[in-house]
Amino acid sequence: MAMNLLYHQSPIRLEEELRIIEKAKINPVHFGPLYSRYHETIFRYIFRRIDDIEAAYDITSQVFVKAIGALPKFEYRGVPFSSWLFRIAKSELYQFFRDSKARRTVSIDSVRIAEVMDEFLDDHSENDRERLLKVLPLLKEDQLQLIEMRFFEKRSFREIGEITGLTENNAKVKTFRALIKLKQLFNKK
Amino acid sequence: MIKILVDRQEPNAEIIRSRQDFKGVLKSYEQQRKLFHNPWFFGVVGFSCLILSLLVLLPI
Predict the structure, then answer these.
(1) Do B2 and A136 touch (CB under 8 A)?
(2) A77-91 as b/e, with b when 16 or more CB fall inside 10 Å?
(3) Read out DSSP for A119-134?
(4) Mean pLDDT of the residues in chain A
(5) Is the Cβ–Cβ distance between A168 and A157 less than 8 Å?
(6) Does B22 touch chain A (CB under 8 A)?
(7) CB B6 to CB A113 under 8 A?
(8) Interface pTM (ipTM) of the complex?
(9) Looking at CA atoms only, how far is residue A31 from chain B in angstroms?
(10) How many CA atoms lie within 13 A of A123 on its CB side?
(11) Fewer CB near the last or first residue (10 Å), C or N of chain A?
């Protein structure tokens, strides 16, 4: 699994980031380096869940507006700053879905579909792939999120846990259950 | 209903970077902060709440 360098930071970089956060708490102008560092990551997270690129840019901006406003309440407790931003992004995204009636989107690469299929079958065809794409929307939203983060975005269980507010172990168990549910739906179709 | 998009083209890092606008973000933050710190905002909200409470609590 590819390592997310923004997530797995070196102690020096983490210390530097915490220093910037403390400065930005006093004056939001100092938030600039954090904005530059995480803008693309947050944008991609939103873009993959919405079929409107301009809306994705707008929501990304709103995430950072909210983050600056909430920054005085941020306390580092071992959870990376990026996870805190992802949580704000998730909340803004669902607010957007409620306000605009836009459709929730799941963006998947063919390679990733094949990897999920490998979990179900030793040998799979184009038909199986279509079947999987049909049953994916039948999952509950929280289960879909776990499958999305683990298999389509290749996040570690620790990162998934920190974004969703679960423990690492709980994230692992719930993702496994979501995969079983997906398999059941797949076999029924 | 959920929409599934397979092999969707994502904008490259350069394009995304060109859309960064930290000044715009700061401006929006300042505007929102001013709104919530404006006594008129809470005056209107407070007055509306008072009227609503009176309408609900008082028998017509």
Answers:
(1) yes
(2) eebbbbbbbbbbbbe
(3) HH-SS--HHHHHHHHH
(4) 90
(5) yes
(6) yes
(7) yes
(8) 0.83
(9) 9
(10) 0
(11) N
Segment B18-41 mean pLDDT:
86
pLDDT for the residue A86: 95
Q: Is the pLDDT of residue A1 over 90?
A: no
DSSP B7: S
pTM metric for this prediction: 0.85
Q: Is B25 in contact with A61 (Cβ distance < 8 A)?
A: yes
SS3 A139: coil
The percent of residues in chain A predicted with pLDDT above 90, rounded, is 71
CB contact under 8 A, A40 and B13: yes
Q: How far apart are CA B9 and CA A176, in angstroms?
A: 29
Q: Pick the residue with more confidence: A113 or B41?
A: A113
Q: Which of A31, A36, A108 is nearest residue B4 as measured by Cβ atoms?
A: A108
User: Which residues in chain B are closer than 8 Å to A28, comparing Cβ atoms?
Assistant: 26, 29
Reported as a single tens digit per residue, the pLDDT across A87-106 is 999 999 999 999 998 889 99
Q: Is B21 on the interface with A (CB under 8 A)?
A: yes
Are residues A17 and A9 in contact, defined by beta-carbon separation less than 8 angstroms? yes
Please write the tens of the pLDDT for every residue from A50-89: 999 999 999 999 999 999 999 999 988 888 899 999 999 9
Whether A68 contacts A27, CB under 8 Å: no
The verdict on B1 touching A (C-beta cutoff 8 Å) is: yes
